[in-house]
Amino acid sequence: MQKIEQLIKEKARDLLAAGQVTSVIAWQKGEMFYDNAPGYFDNTEELDALVYNAFCAANLSKYLIANTKKDEKTAVFLKPCDTYSLNQLIKDRRVQREQVLVIGIPCAGMVDINKVKAQGLKGIIGITEDGDNLTVETAYGTKQVARAEVLLNKCLACKGSAYAVSDETIGEPMAVKHAPYDRFAVVKELESLSPQERFAFWQEELSKCIRCNACRDICPACSCEQCLFDNPESPLAGKANNNSAEEQLFHIIRAYHVAGRCTDCGECSRVCPQGIRLDLLNRKFIKDINEFYGDYQAGADADTNAPLLSFDVDDVEPGAATKGRE
Amino acid sequence: MQKIGVFVCWCGSNIAATVDVARVAESVKSIPGVAFAADYRYMCSEGGQELMQKAIKDYGLSRVVVCSCSPRMHEATFRKAAQAAGLNPYLVEIANIREHCSWVHKDKEVATAKAIALAKAAIAKVKLNTPLVSGESAVVKRALVIGGGIAGLQTALDIAEAGYKVDIVEKTPSIGGKMSQLDKTFPTLDCSACILTPKMVEAATHENITIYTYSEIEKVSGYVGQFEAVIRKKARSVSVDRCSGCGICSEKCPSKKAKSEFDQGLRNRSAIYIPFAQAIPNVPVIDRENCLKFQTGKCGICAKVCPAGAIEYEQEDELVTQKYGAIVLATGFEPIDMAKFGEFNYEYCPDVITSLEFERLTNAAGPTQGHLVRLSDGKKPKSIVFVSCVGSRDTTERGKTYCSKICCMYNAKHAMLVKEKYPDIDVQVFYIDVRTPGKSFDEFYRRAVEEYGVQYTKGMVGKITEEGDHLLVHASDVASGAQLSVPADMVVLATAIKPAADARKLATMLTASIDTNDFFTEAHPKLRPVESPTAGIFLSGVCQGPKDIPETVAQAGAAAVKVLGLLSKDKLLTNPCVATCNEQTCSGCLACEKVCPYGAISAEYKLVNVKGLKERRLIAQVNEALCQGCGACTVACPSGAMDLKGFSNKQIMAEVDAIC
User: Fold this and answer.
1) Is domain B579-644 annotated with CATH 2.10.109.10?
2) Is the pLDDT of residue A236 over 80?
3) Quick check: do B142-234+317-332+500-567 and B335-498 share a fold?
4) Which residue of B has its CA nearest to A311?
5) The listed CATH number (3.30.1360, 3.40.50, 3.40.33, 3.30.450) that belongs to domain B4-126
6) Which one of A224, A243, A253, A258 makes the best mutation probe of the B interface by having the most chain B beta carbons within 10 Å?
7) Which residue segment(s) compose the domain that A225 sits in?
8) pLDDT value at residue A321
9) What pLDDT sits at residue A322?
10) Is residue B469 over pLDDT 80?
């Protein structure tokens, strides 16, 4: 992916130098080698900080909401999975398509530094990518780690190397290699529990929440001008802070609000400092939608109506209404 | 601070026997804002209304809560009473402490506590009520009747006679419905066709009636007074204008393998066909699935022989869009499928037939010209067994729990018709009960038994087997306790009836409610039997529940009267509880527009003030004249920008908070 980084920098430099775009959204070096952050670049001098490697998990599509309100053109570098989120935002009219230059970039799967550490490695100084392996440089020498073993959880549910939307692409498509993975496996386990057990599971899981709002702020589907929970006029405002039961409601309501728009990008779980499996709530909805209305991938296109926002006389009626019917 | 008056109704003993009404009134007095609280025997009575109006004036009440029956009963009464006392009618809230409380509880303590909670919720909500004013909408002076059987025809004729335009949409090639398939009708034994066809002709020739046969409803939008329906006129492949109905095309058509729907599959018909002799219109249709021209490209005989040049293979379905003020559902019924009833051997024994098949067999225009013969060998049967309640009053999953209502009477009719024509045939009827509650009905049944000697045996048939060239009916005789094996040459099954298959689809299209059996639900089972809970949708005939012809005709007339009451108005007051969009919080995702069933939401780019800066944003806008206040948009809106007047998010949350 080092080669790709070079190509991205060159592309960004060309676009900015030629004045084709006012700004570029990509990733910039963090304090540590593994905490790269989303970055705005509006002149060529800043581009030295631009980075693209195994630690650029952040989904950049959401930053275009603010940018396309301005009367200017923005270039954005998106991994294949990120393009689904952008497409959904275009569908929801949150991003003006004509103001964005979408450049698709290949991805071999992003790495979870905690999984690397969990392999018993201490004093990690840097990581270089080497085909299917990572070379981890530590204070105690270098070690090889299989990339497939340390991928971020969200990359295990990789949507593939195709771009849902792009104007241009850079580099050859890459494959994310990992062991077979069923993204609904845990959802199925939860479904098999009794309501009491399931409630206990979620009570335990959601009680960890510190309401930092990171999940909401990172979520490309959470794109409201003003979140219901931040609106003092809303009858919900403040409620979610009142007690732990209503705090749990925050996550349930959020899951409902993004149902049908969630592309399963996995950012909510990735950024949760408490390690709450928020993806399970979203995946439960995705699984239900798939079962009731046929397989549906939010953001796969920018035109068709989502199953929860369309109505057909042949729609299934989940639940009691269909019991015992011929 | 609001001054709220709370009025707790006893409803005689309906509420007061289960709810301590005095305690409810007493306990809400301490709630901030409540300026007056009292209980009264009948709040809906004149005395009750006067009590409310006096309190509004004496205490300067600004809001009213009535703890009483369902708002469906008396909301309008109390709103009018408050309005007469100078309050905006939408400042009145009802706490339903009857249907939601006293009628479902037995324990007075529990019910009283719940009634207090419901009162508190209504008080919390009413504090946030705002004065609302109704608008007006026009009424399109035209009705749509879906279904061209006796129910639909009668409703259409009554509406047309009163001077309004009516369109009948019938999915089969002819109007007439199930009644046109019947031989004779009970309790007078007059010929079904003889009394039906004059009505068919009258409808077809009426200047106010337009009939769309071989047509289906594609889509319905709009609301009471302003419906818009798209009718799909399926391609007949024959020009209605040019065809003279001579029938030579059907005669010469080489494809004669299709089963006649009209004759219940008892004979074949050609691919180009007129379903029956008195069909209206008397114009054939080409059943393209069975037509050689359409299937293989070769043939074209009908076009060659047609003297009028009426055959139009290239015809395509046509979509007609029309506006209506009212819609009547008259979609009728069909017999249930016998596949789940293996014990009767219906599928394997040709001499086990359904009652509707029997109607065709005894009909002079039927496949046997009215000669009653066995389908297996064409011989006249010597004995016939009729079986009642096949799939009716059946609590197992395969049948219907309800009584199909018409079977007892047509069994007696069939038995009598057989005995009248062929006195030598033995006729036996197996039944659970004989139900004959109708004018001259019991007398009719007794004639079958007493004059014609039909043997009625109380007991259910458990199995029918074939024994050589006859059938054996295995049944129990409840009177003697004996197990019987009765030999019979023919068995007729009185199969349960169920709503037509497309009732469910139409219900969804029209947001008209249906029950667990797919019968359309009436607005009130006793007091509003021909109205659907959806305004402007009316019910006629069996689509609402099993009925015989006299009842169907009576109900069809009643539905017409309700339609006329609506069409005679020039304007309707609209519901002021409509959606409204908060431009500050609207994100422009337009989820609301997608879910709106009335097309009431559009979007526009607007400059919005955001923290002092102008921002150009896409904003949803509600057309209040089109909005029907269903609230779908408020639920779909993720940012809570869509709100419903009279049922705002804040009001609902206040109610919930007051209860929890």
Assistant:
1) no
2) no
3) yes
4) B595
5) 3.40.50
6) A224
7) 182-313
8) 39
9) 43
10) yes
Instruction: State how far the Cα of A74 lies from the Cα of A62, in Å rounded to an integer.
Output: 13
Given this structure, which CATH class describes domain B335-498? alpha beta
Q: Is the pLDDT of residue B323 over 60?
A: yes
Q: Which pLDDT value is given to residue A315?
A: 81
Count of domains forming chain A? 3
Decide if B216 contacts B168 (C-beta within 8 A). Answer: no
- How far from chain centre, in Å, is Cα B15? 32
pLDDT at A312 over 80: no
pLDDT of residue A239: 67
| A39 part of a folded domain | yes
8 Å CB contact of A94 and B509:
no
Please give the ipTM for the structure prediction: 0.87
Separation in Å, CA of A36 to nearest CA in chain B:
30
What is the CATH superfamily name and number for domain B142-234+317-332+500-567?
FAD/NAD(P)-binding domain (3.50.50.60)
Residue B452 CB contacts under 8 Å (≥ 6 apart), including other chains: B415, B416, B419, B420, B427
CA atoms within 13 A on the CB side of B220: 27
Using a CB-CB cut-off of 8 Å, the residues of chain A touching B650 are 235
- Dist. CA B48–CA B29, nearest whole Å: 19
The token pair at B172 is: 């089969």
Contact (CB<8Å) B653/A225: no
The Cα B285–Cα B273 span in angstroms is 6
Name the residue ranges covered by the structural domains of chain B: 4-126, 142-234+317-332+500-567, 248-305, 335-498, 579-644
Q: Is B617 on the interface with A (CB under 8 A)?
A: yes
Interfacial residues of A (vs B; Cβ cutoff 8 Å): 69, 92-94, 223-228, 231, 233-236, 257-258, 305, 309-311, 313, 324, 326
A28, exposed or middle or buried, with CB in 10 Å at 0-12, 13-18, 19+? Answer: middle
Are residues A198 and A100 both part of a single domain?
no
From chain A, pick out residues whose CB is under 8 angstroms from the CB of B617: 69, 225
Q: Establish how many alpha carbons lie within 13 A of residue B554's alpha carbon, considering only the half-sphere containing its beta carbon.
A: 6
Q: What is the mean pLDDT of residues B207-214?
A: 98
On average, the pLDDT of chain B sits at 95
Residue type (1 letter), B336: I
Q: What is the pLDDT of residues B112-129, one digit of tens each?
A: 999 999 999 999 999 999
Distance from the A239 Cα atom to the nearest Cα atom in chain B, whole angstroms: 11
3-state secondary structure B347-367: CCCCCEEEHHHHHHHHCCCCC
CA distance B358 to B366: 10
* B294: number of Cβ within 10 Å: 16
